[in-house]
Structures
1.
Amino acid sequence: MLGLPSSVTACLFDLDGVLTQTAAVHNAAWKQTFDTFLKTWSEQHGQAFVPFDSGADYHQYVDGRPRADGVRTFLSSRGITLPEGTPDDGPDQETVNGVGNRKNLLVLQKIKEGAVEVYPGSVDYLKAAKAAGLRRAVVSASANCKDVLEAAGIDGYLEARVDGIVAREQHLPGKPAPDTFLYGAKLLGVPPEQCVVFEDAQAGVAAGKAGGFGYVVGVDRGGNAQGLADNGADIVVQDLSELLTR
């Protein structure tokens, strides 16, 4: 009924791009933030401006990673190194955390404007998983996870939440490290080999593979199927509703 191996007893869902249609919001916010930064940087250093690529750059360097990791990884790909700063840095500060917080302000603005929409197939899958008695947790790099779940009206379907705030409190490295997913399994009281990971990011499926989880489902929302498969997805679907018909 759920298209999963019979050994699976728990589901670990990524948020953006798997349950909610906020991945596009994040992508747009990253592009606006990085393009503004890169224009200023190129002018100051006499370099040609090369804009952030919402396809290749987003999937390879940013998608699924904690905010600061995404900033650091992308800027490193351009040969740019900034001071780390602290998580409390203002959005005007030229630090890794400052740039990340700039992006977060844009996302929060979009959330307040009602930009959070769910994928109907994912809601159907959550309901089916609950009815089947599977344990359910959300594992997201986003520090806004709680607000997004509540805005989307799906927080009641999930028993545990591991997000950017929890990761910081528990000193958990972000995806592609498997630690946040492992912590989610721990909260549910289910061993990793009995859990399925649902991810739309290459870093996320890599984390699922590295953690020894029983099954990893890649969710391709935009032409990233091969990248998901290459990074460890056991199966790639375009929507979770496909699994309900298997």
2.
Amino acid sequence: MGSFLYFIVDGLLGLLVVAIIISAILSWLVAFDVINLRNQFVYNVARFLDALTRPILRPVQKVIPPIGGVDISPIIVLLVIQGIRQFLLPLAFGPLIAVLH
């Protein structure tokens, strides 16, 4: 049971990493006018990714403003998520997995 919970939490954090990366790339493509938000599919994808990543990125954006017009909050959030996945998850779920096995 503990391994399954670890797998689910780690998988959700992995999906969040992918969503942040895709959202950042999509925002660059829109900013450089490579793709257009007037396309309904692109608009819906951008809105979904924005709704998914905004609650996580916003607190970091309030603390660290854009540097030279470049928002580095996705990089900071990705580093924090990777730290959680590598260090805190095994630390948190290790005793649970050991007890349940």
